[in-house]
């Protein structure tokens, strides 16, 4: 038997490319590793960029607060603008907040338009999202300056639009919170593969329910101790009813979702109820704000900054949670894919700018907000209460919808079985 003089393909040490250039396998592996390292560097740069955008968002909204409370005294030069006449507050207080908010919206909505279809790390739009900070700083300054030359009538129109945008932001944030609660419940469910036992889940659900009940009792003591506080009594009582309904439905034999997710959701709606009552104006007879001083002490100042930082964090977490809002979720991802959806991230921040504006002006375009206050007024109270009821409704539907769909399928299959 004559052996072939041609070498076996498995023993070849060189790979011929289409351009007749030979590359050693070791060199090819080196190129792949280099490409992988470059993708890793770009991904880390992209992940760091989101924190930079979060800091920009925080600074802009603190600037909006500054214009509301101190802008008229510290920035008298703005009175020389055609949109800011002497003797008027067109660039300060409510309209000042809306002007800064409009600038923030312009910047982030522009970033949304320029990054909305980015998919790979090697695309130029990824470089735009993660770099070019000097140019973006100039664009940001221009975006913040332009609204101060816009007539007040157009700023009022933006304020009306901002109410809608803020409502959309609340809806996105609500869906994100409920999805997180569902994920947390599924993570702590008993699983042999993950070696999870039900003991920790039972402990956590018990802790959340105890905290929720204690919160309801405390709200009754602090904000509904008088029989004349009928509105607060209604708010707190209805929250307790929603808590009980969620627990009963979660334990129903057809639902059987356990108590952990309903316990977390119960704590969330109790928090929303407490926040709504805290937003009642100081003129209300059962308002907790009646004991506050006119300018507020250290507790007011600290509470203000904590509230601002908490809302920024909520905006940030909603912005990076793009998977929740995808209709088709692809589990397979390559190392060259972007770590989060840039377009959705910037869209949430642009809506968050509208939401922040509503908080600073208490959802009211015609009144002045007290210094060092955020989200105080009857409009703010009802927005939070409706948000609480809406959250409970979405969660309850999420519990019963699988049962409803299953019953519909069984109802359509019964005639077929009878044939």
TrEMBL record:
Keywords noted in UniProt: Membrane, Transmembrane, Transmembrane helix
InterPro entries, per database record: TDE1/TMS
Main location: membrane
Record localization: Membrane
Membrane topology of this protein: Multi-pass membrane protein
Statement: the UniProt record of this protein carries the keyword Membrane: yes
UniProt keyword ATP-binding present: no
Transmembrane segments annotated in the record for this chain: 51-68, 97-118, 130-149, 161-181, 202-225, 231-251, 258-277, 297-320, 340-361, 381-400
GO-annotated cellular components: membrane
Family: Belongs to the TDE1 family.
Listed name of the protein: Uncharacterized protein
High-level lineage: Eukaryota, Viridiplantae, Streptophyta, Embryophyta, Tracheophyta
Gene: LOC113737167
């Amino acid at each position: 038997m004559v052996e072939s003089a041609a070498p076996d393909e498995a023993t070849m040490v060189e790979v011929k490319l289409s351009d007749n250039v030979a590359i050693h396998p070791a060199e090819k592996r080196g190129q792949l590793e280099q490409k992988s390292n470059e993708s890793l560097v770009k991904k880390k740069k992209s992940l760091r960029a989101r924190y930079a955008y979060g800091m920009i968002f925080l600074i802009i909204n603190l600037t909006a607060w500054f214009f509301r409370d101190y802008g008229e005294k510290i920035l008298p030069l703005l009175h020389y603008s055609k949109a800011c006449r002497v003797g008027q507050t067109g660039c300060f207080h409510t309209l000042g907040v809306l002007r800064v908010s409009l600038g923030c919206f312009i910047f982030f909505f522009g970033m949304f338009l320029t990054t909305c279809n980015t998919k790979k790390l090697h695309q130029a739009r990824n470089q735009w999202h993660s770099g070019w900070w000097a140019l973006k700083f100039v664009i940001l300054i221009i975006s913040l300056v332009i609204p101060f030359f816009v007539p007040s009538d157009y700023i009022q129109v933006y304020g009306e639009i901002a109410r809608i945008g803020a409502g959309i932001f609340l809806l996105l944030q609500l869906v994100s919170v409920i999805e997180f609660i569902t994920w947390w419940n599924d993570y702590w469910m008993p699983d042999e593969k993950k070696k999870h036992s039900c003991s920790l889940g039972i402990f956590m659900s018990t802790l959340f329910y105890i905290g929720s009940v204690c919160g309801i009792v405390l709200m009754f003591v602090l904000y509904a101790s008088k029989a004349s506080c009928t509105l607060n009594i209604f708010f707190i009582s209805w929250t307790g009813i929603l808590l009980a309904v969620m627990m009963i439905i979660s334990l129903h034999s057809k639902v059987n979702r356990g108590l952990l997710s309903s316990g977390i959701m119960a704590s969330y709606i109790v928090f929303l109820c407490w926040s709504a009552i805290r937003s009642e104006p100081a003129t209300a007879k059962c308002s907790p704000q009646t004991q506050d001083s006119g300018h507020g002490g250290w507790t007011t100042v600290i509470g203000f900054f904590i509230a601002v930082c908490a809302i920024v964090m909520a905006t940030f977490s909603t912005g990076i949670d793009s998977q929740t809002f995808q209709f088709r979720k692809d589990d397979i991802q390559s190392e060259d894919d972007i770590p989060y959806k840039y377009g959705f991230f910037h869209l949430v921040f642009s809506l968050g700018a509208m939401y922040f504006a509503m908080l600073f002006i208490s959802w009211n375009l015609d009144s002045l907000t007290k210094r060092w206050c955020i989200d105080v007024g009857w409009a703010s109270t009802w927005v939070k209460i409706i948000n609480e009821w809406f959250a409970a409704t979405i969660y309850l539907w999420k519990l019963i919808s699988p049962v409803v769909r299953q019953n519909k399928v069984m109802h359509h299959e019964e005639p077929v079985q009878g044939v």
